[in-house]
What we know:
- It is a single chain.
- By secondary structure, the protein is of the alpha/beta class.
- The protein has a single domain (60-329), classed as UDP-N-acetylmuramoyl-L-alanine:D-glutamate ligase (3-Layer(aba) Sandwich).
- The protein contains 15 helices and 10 strands.
- It has helices spanning 4-7, 12-15, 27-30, 42-48, 74-86, 101-107, 129-137, 152-164, 174-178, 199-206, 210-215, 217-228, 263-276, 281-299, 309-334, and strands spanning 37-39, 63-67, 91-97, 112-116, 141-144, 169-171, 194-195, 231-234, 240-242, 248-250.
- It has a 10-stranded mixed sheet, sandwiched between helices.
- Strand 3 (91-97), helix 6 (101-107) and strand 4 (112-116) form a beta-alpha-beta unit.
- The longest helix has 26 residues, at 309-334.
- Keywords: ATP-binding, Kinase, Lyase, NAD, NADP, Nucleotide-binding, Transferase.
- It is an enzyme of class 4 (lyase).
- Residues 41-323 form the YjeF C-terminal domain.
- Its cofactor is K(+); Mg(2+).
- (6S)-NADPHX binds at residues 76, 147, 198, 265.
Amino acid sequence: MPKPGLLLYPGAACAGKWTVADIGLPAALLETPALKLAVLTQRDISRRLPERRPDAYKGDCGRVWAVAGSTGLTGAAALCTTAALRSGAGLVTLGIAASLNSIMEVKVTEVMTRPLPESADGAIGLAAWGIIEHEAAASQVLAVGPGLGRQAETLALVREIVEKSQVPLVLDADALYALQDHTGLLGKAKHMPVLTPHAGEMARLTGLTVADINENRLDVAKMAANEWQSIVVLKGAPTLIALPGGEIFVNTTGNAGMATAGSGDVLTGVIAGLLAQGLSGCDAALCGVYLQGLAGDLAAANGMAGLLAGDLLKTLPAVLAQLQTAGATCRKSDG
């Protein structure tokens, strides 16, 4: 079986090409619940992806409601919401500060926008909660955080959303910033939230240093998922997905070209889009991470330097189709 040192850096940089070979271990031993570390493979992911019926219409494919963007950070909102559509969601609506709504109507075409009440400093304010709650009631998932801003009233709104939302949440970026010293709210969420921190965001949430996290990524991810009763996607090389029960999945897609602004916003949108299509929070996180990484690998085919987050949006449909075709083949072979 693969060893963690082959997958996690700095060991992974020295591993070269490796192969898993059958050396005769009993099947019962390989299936023991004690083995809680798994490597994501194409077969695992393709089996989990949603199938689209030939007579589907947009209402069948799920609705995403996103609260994101602020002055200077509208790109994050555009990347996130477009990624939700690119991952197969049927309808996506973006809640944005009212003064920025006209900008977003030019910036995004297929994404619908909803102007939200602002605070005095021009950010989404607490008065927006009623509209957010109403829109969420007609959606399958609420994505919060990309480019949202860190104004005090906006951060208070995020905490209210976490505590009161009746639909599953995907929390990233400034939504995670709002939870610094307030991670206890995650246990009050109606549905198990999906969190997507990078090492810096995880450092703020845990009180650890970035160095501590990078040296102990498996343990930190496991601890956070258990303590917060959340699905924790610890972004990095490689990205880890930790579940509250102690299971950790190691992603095998992605490349250094994705170390560019906006990649995380795309991931948030992909996970939200998959949740909207009926996947569980766990399956949406696993498939979303793998799918976004595979899109990055295809986008980097001609080189990693200069790759943009927007390039992932262009390659997502192709890799999604590839995985769904593989999934159909697996299901057919299974009988």
